[in-house]
Amino acid sequence: MTAVLTEETVTAVSAPPAAPRRRRHRADRRASTVSAWIAVVVFGGFALLPVYWLLATSLTPRTEVFSYPPKLFPTEITFEAYAALANNPALFGYLRNSIVVSVITAILSVLVSAYMGYAFSKFRYRGRRSLMYFVLASQMFPQALLLITLYAVFSAYGLLNTYTALVLSFTTFTLPLCVWMLKGFFDTIPDELIEAARVDGASRMRIIHSIVLPLAAPGLIAAGLFAFVRGWNDFIFALTLAGPDKQTLPPGLVNTFIGEASTAWPELMAASLVVSLPVAIAFIALQRFLVGGLTAGAVKG
């Protein structure tokens, strides 16, 4: 009797058993999971180590800050640095200035960039693309390069040592990114929706305020948060354009805790940690809108 080898028979004989294949698949998945967790731990530690060092230094007595070898965990914990912050009224003035400047910068940046982004996205006119790239090209210049020019302009108009100088300078550098961010978000809004509202008799301003901006709320929040952080973290413009009464927290902390002969490191670390909390809380509270605003313009709908 002659045996006939069919293609199915050859495949069945040559194929490895299913159990070893499943074991190899599980081993590969386990190795991939372990590698991913190792990467998360390494990058997470790299990102959180400075924050931990801020906390540890702020809780360390001043006499042990420069102990050698450095101690990863403080042997003695003290809250004297935080008590010094609470008893320093000048810091509350810097905090007030930071809040005022950052909030106004965020509002002004969102208002201006919303109209500019909508015009770039939905209007068609000669020179539109060139103007868009011109706005983006302004980000190529170092901000410190324009500091002398801004100082001369604000001095000529009597705006030095005012909130106006800080808000205008911060808004100048936040607008390009905010405009492009919102322009990409407006691109995802269908033109048919705007045309339907126009057919129903809605004016252009009514369409923008009642239809487009509510749909672009995540993008507006993302742009506002970016502008807020820009105003909150700035150092060089707040140090140069504002006097002691209008300076924000970054230059205020330097002037308060860093001197020619010594530096109050525990107080400076404690103040830096406290100053970072509002931005961290804002990111945590608005992260859903921030992610949606940053990614919505990636794919045109």
TrEMBL record:
Coiled coil: none annotated. Gene3D superfamilies: MetI-like. PROSITE patterns: ABC_TM1 (PS50928). Belongs to the binding-protein-dependent transport system permease family. Keywords: Cell membrane, Membrane, Transmembrane, Transmembrane helix, Transport. The keyword Transport applies. It is a multi-pass membrane protein. The chain crosses the membrane at residues 31-55, 99-120, 132-157, 163-186, 207-229, 268-286. Its main location: membrane. Pfam families: BPD_transp_1. Residues 95-286 form the ABC transmembrane type-1 domain. This is Carbohydrate ABC transporter permease. It is found in: Cell membrane.
